[in-house]
Write a structure and sequence with these properties.
Shape: elongated
Structural class: alpha/beta
Bound molecules: SN-glycerol-3-phosphate
CATH architecture of the largest domain: Alpha-Beta Barrel
Number of helices: 11
Strand content: 15-25%
Distance between the termini: 68 Å
Length: 231
């Protein structure tokens, strides 16, 4: 399962690239709005940092407008994936773009039948929103599991991108279910590293190493102090 960041915040993206684990970025209109940059400039800046897929969403009413916007976004960089919403217009636009060879990410997916539509238009990614299903007291992971199963049974090529992940347990669960990609906020990605026993272990190793080096230094100074005058 590949690990993507769900953010448009350049500093966080740079940090995660530095960790050597980031394989892509997803953005959405809400995340882009927080950054206060022109959207094409923002997308360009992200694609300059991340070598993997960068999903950028089209915001428009009609399929024609979405197709035009999608083509324009795709022209920004070769790793732009065009995000279209799971609406009739969005799916129609996604179908046109996918036929042109543009990688499409179908977003706002909340049911298995919507995921089937995404696969049938040849989308590169389908994005079920796990956390938002949990928010309405349903089981987001059951939806993810159903989609993964349907895609395997049907042999669909579309990759399942688990989105709206809110905590590390979501990430681990998505991996167990066979999601191809997990996208998460920076705060969740940071937490993937954490374990108190790792911290305790590091403290002990560092303390023991320092004591060991100090003991060796003492030994060296004893030897040089006593053995220096034998001639
Ligand atoms: O990738 C989809 C994601 O941005 C939605 O997350 O937390 O707003 O439900 P959230």
């Amino acid at each position: 399962m590949k690990l993507f960041l769900d953010t448009a915040h350049l500093a966080d993206i740079e940090t995660a690239v530095g960790w050597g684990i980031l394989e892509g970025v997803t953005t959405n209109p809400t995340l882009a709005a927080r950054e206060g940059m022109e959207f094409p400039d923002l997308v360009k800046a992200i694609t300059d940092i991340v070598p993997g897929p960068v999903s950028a969403e089209v915001v428009a009413e009609t399929r024609e407008e979405m197709v035009d916007l999608g083509r324009a976004l795709r022209a920004i960089a070769g790793n732009v994936y065009v995000k279209v919403p799971m609406t009739r217009e969005g799916v129609a636009a996604g179908a046109v773009l996918a036929r042109e060879g543009v990688p499409v990410n179908v977003t706002l997916v909340f049911s298995p039948t919507q995921a089937i539509l995404a696969a049938r238009i040849g989308a590169a990614f389908v994005s079920p929103f796990v956390g938002r299903i949990d928010d309405i007291a349903n089981d987001g992971m059951s939806l993810l599991s159903e989609i993964v199963e349907i895609y395997a049974v049907q042999g669909y090529d579309t990759e399942v991108l688990a989105a709206s992940l809110r905590h590390p347990q979501h990430v681990a669960h998505a991996a167990r279910l066979g999601a191809d990609i997990a996208t998460m906020p920076f705060s969740v990605m940071e937490k993937l590293f954490n374990h108190p026993l790792t911290d305790i272990g590091m403290e002990r190793f560092n303390a023991d190493w320092e004591a060991y080096q100090a003991a060796l230094a003492d030994k060296r100074s004893d030897v040089s102090g006593s053995g220096g005058g034998t001639r």
